[in-house]
Amino acid sequence: MAEKNAVTSRLNEKNYAAISGAGVDIMDAEAHFLSNKVIEITAGDEKEELTAETIVINTGAVSNVLPIPGLTETEHVYDSTGFQNKCLGMWKQSGK
User: Which residue, among 51, 49, 52, 58, has the nearest Cα to 19 in the 3D structure?
Assistant: First the structure.
């Protein structure tokens, strides 16, 4: 698990570095569209409206567990993190 987290962190840092010098504003926040050219971003207690011709929202998805009884207890339903962890465990057990 620590190895997967370290790889993910390195890839995130590399991606940030690749686009940060290209005239791109990077904002770690939640956002929603107010219109086709206006978004409202929220970072902590701060809110801001931004207007642009082109808006790209790159979501770092957060799992949303539906309120279905027993869903979180089953071993047969995974979110992306759980699936990655299961695959990593299987890979390590295989000795590869």
Answer: 58
Residue 38 token pair: 């206006």
How many CA atoms within 13 Å lie on the side-chain side of 25? 8
Angstrom distance (rounded) from CA 16 to CA 54: 19
pTM: 0.46
pLDDT tens, per residue, the chain with 96 residues:
677 778 777 877 777 777 776 777 777 888 899 998 999 999 999 999 999 888 876 666 667 778 888 887 877 777 777 777 776 666 667 665
Residue 14 burial class via C-beta count within 10 angstroms: exposed 0-12, middle 13-18, buried 19 and up: exposed
DSSP designation for 37: T
Say how far apart CA 92 and CA 88 lie, in whole Å. Answer: 6
Distance CA 79, CA 65 (A): 8
